[in-house]
């Protein structure tokens, strides 16, 4: 079974249209459901949401441990530059599989938005823009075997392990201390800051044959990381510094 999954990971469709088609379907579905729900009662969905969030928590934690193992090996044995630029994460069958699953998980995680609109919760721009942009950029990054993706996957899996654990607890109706919510949002900002810094290094290293990227991908990922950072900082300021945050399970 593992061998077949690795083989599938080596055959991610190269079509440039597919992530854009999936993104269009996502937007139509989400805003279509939101419109459909306007005059209808919200679904509670506590049990399905709890199971959904817990499954993604478990997946993220396992995936993070697998990718970090490869990243730590390269970092400790070859240094930081190689940990960013080396394509060993695409060559080693285990890390390649988890990078493939990382890309696929971005499309699965779009289900978060479906829960929001079915439960008639507030759908903020940061939420759907985050899911949409991440899904597109990770797809192209994997197909291009671009530099830096090992770090992106390792850090993102780690942060999502925390984030989905938080979602699991709140879905169960448990009150969560404000400090935990602040820690999770802060980890998102730290993550995006790290990605921006990493792209600065890649900019100076991109002429090196071992540090592969393309200008369209570099510009797109830089735009995504910077806008994410700005949006998370704005969210942090409005949510936690304005005094509007309420500690309650959802």
From TrEMBL:
Transmembrane segments: 20-37, 49-68, 97-118, 125-142, 148-167, 179-205, 217-236
Molecular function GO labels: fatty acid elongase activity
Cellular component GO terms held in the UniProt record: endoplasmic reticulum membrane
Localisation: Membrane
Record-listed E.C. numbers: 2.3.1.199
Pfam family, one: ELO
Gene Ontology annotations of biological process type: fatty acid elongation, monounsaturated fatty acid; fatty acid elongation, polyunsaturated fatty acid; fatty acid elongation, saturated fatty acid; sphingolipid biosynthetic process; very long-chain fatty acid biosynthetic process
Keyword Metal-binding in annotation: no
Domain of life per record: Eukaryota
Family of this protein: Belongs to the ELO family.
Official protein name in the record: Elongation of very long chain fatty acids protein
Source organism (scientific name): Lepidothrix coronata
Lineage of source species: Eukaryota, Metazoa, Chordata, Craniata, Vertebrata
């Amino acid at each position: 079974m593992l061998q077949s999954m690795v083989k599938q990971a080596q055959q991610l469709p190269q079509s440039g249209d597919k992530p854009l088609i999936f993104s269009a379907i996502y937007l139509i579905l989400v805003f279509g459901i939101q419109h459909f729900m306007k005059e209808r009662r919200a679904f509670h969905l506590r049990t399905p949401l709890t199971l959904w969030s817990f499954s993604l928590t478990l997946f993220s934690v396992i995936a993070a441990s697998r990718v970090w193992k490869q990243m730590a090996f390269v970092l400790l044995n070859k240094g930081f530059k190689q940990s960013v630029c080396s394509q060993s994460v695409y060559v080693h069958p285990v890390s390649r599989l988890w990078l493939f699953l990382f890309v696929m998980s971005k499309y699965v995680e779009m289900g978060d938005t479906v829960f929001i609109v079915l439960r008639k919760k507030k759908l903020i721009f940061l939420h759907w823009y985050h899911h949409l942009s991440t899904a597109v950029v990770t797809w192209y990054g994997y197909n291009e075997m671009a530099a830096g993706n090992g770090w992106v996957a390792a850090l993102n899996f780690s942060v999502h392990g925390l984030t989905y654990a938080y979602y699991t607890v709140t879905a169960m109706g448990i009150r969560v201390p404000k400090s935990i919510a602040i820690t999770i949002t802060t980890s998102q900002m730290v993550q995006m800051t790290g990605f921006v810094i990493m792209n600065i290094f890649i900019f100076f290293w991109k002429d090196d044959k071992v540090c592969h990227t393309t200008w369209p991908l570099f510009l797109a990922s830089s735009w995504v990381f910077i806008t994410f950072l700005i949006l998370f900082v704005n969210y942090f300021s409005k949510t936690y510094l304005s005094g509007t945050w309420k500690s309650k399970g959802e």
